[in-house]
Amino acid sequence: MQIRFWGVRGTIPVPGPDTLRVGGNTSCVEVRTADKQLIIIDAATGILQLGKALQQQANGRIVGSILISHTHWDHIQGLPFFTPIWGRTNRFVLLGQKRIGQRLEKILADQFIEPYLPFTYKALPADLIVKEVADGETLIIGDHTRVTVANMNHPGGCLGFRIESDGVVFTYCSDVGHYDDRFDPAVLTLAKNADLLLHDAHFGTMTERNERKDWGHSTWLEAAQVAIEANVGALALSHFSPDLTDDNVENILTQTKQIFPRTLIAREQLTVTLPLNDNFPEFQSR
Q1: Would you give the end-to-end CA distance of the chain in angstroms?
Q2: Is there a contact between 2 and 32 (Cβ–Cβ < 8 Å)?
Q3: Are 241 and 203 in contact (CB under 8 A)?
Q4: How confident is the model over 32-55, as pLDDT tens digits?
Q5: What is the Cα gyration radius of the chain?
Q6: SS3 1
Q7: pLDDT-wise least confident of 46-55, 164-173, 176-185, 275-284
Q8: Whether pLDDT at 197 is above 70
Q9: Is the entire prediction scored with pTM above 0.90?
Q10: Residue 262: helix, strand or coil by DSSP?
Q11: Nearest one of 29, 20, 12 to 236, comparing CA atoms
Q12: Which residues is 277 bridged to in the sheet?
C-alpha cells in the first residue's frame, strides 16, 4: 500500500516561507492499494495538486473513491477545483457521514452556488456518486480492500477510516478530541495493530488543548500515547494548527520520538510504502 500526503494543515491554508518544509495546504491524502484502487481521503486544498498529478498520469479514465471525514471547510474546500471532476469519462464515489436531517450530497453541492462560485454541482461532467455511511460500517472497495468507518469525538461528528488491503492497514484519524479520562475508543479500535496511524496533532501543547476542548482536536502527546496503546507500527502526525511553523512542527517531532520513536511528519508530497522499515528516512535523527 502506498500513501502520499497532499495536505496536512488544519483550519486554513498557510502558504509562506515558514511552512515550506511541512506544507501549507489543508487535508488530503492519496492511497494506492495492492489491488490497484485509488482512494482519496478528504478534499481540502491539498487535492488541487493531487488532481493535477492524476491528470498527468492518466492514461484514459480516472476512477476512484473519495472518503470525506466530515464537511468542515478545511476538509472539502478544494473539491470544486479538483480537475478530474471536470473530465466527462471520469468516475468517483464520494463516501461520507450519514447525518440526521442533512444529505451529504446537498452539503457538498451547496459549495457550488452563487455567490461562492460561478458554476453549479450539476454542471460537473464527471460521474459522481455520493454514498452515506454509518458508524461502524465496513465497505469493500475493489477486490481486496476493506474500509471500516467510525464516528470520532469532534464537533458535528467526524469519521475515522481503517483501510485494509493485502494484509496491510492504514488508519486515518485527522480530527479527534480525546476525553480527559480516556482515549476515544473509536480511534483505538480503528488503529489497533495498524501499520501506520495518521493522527491529529493540531495543538502544540496540552495547555492549548485544554483551553480549546470544544474544538475537538489533539496534541502530539496524545497521538504518541494512542500509538502505544493501539500497538501501531508507525505514527504520522498531521492536521497541524496554522499557527505552527515548520520549526515548531520539527520540535514536536523530536518530542514525540522520545515517546514513540517510529514517528514521522506527514509532509506534503511525502510518499510512504507500507509496511515501513526501520531505514525509512523520517525515522532517523535530524
Answers
A1: 26
A2: yes
A3: yes
A4: 999 999 999 999 999 999 999 999
A5: 18
A6: coil
A7: 275-284
A8: yes
A9: yes
A10: coil
A11: 29
A12: none
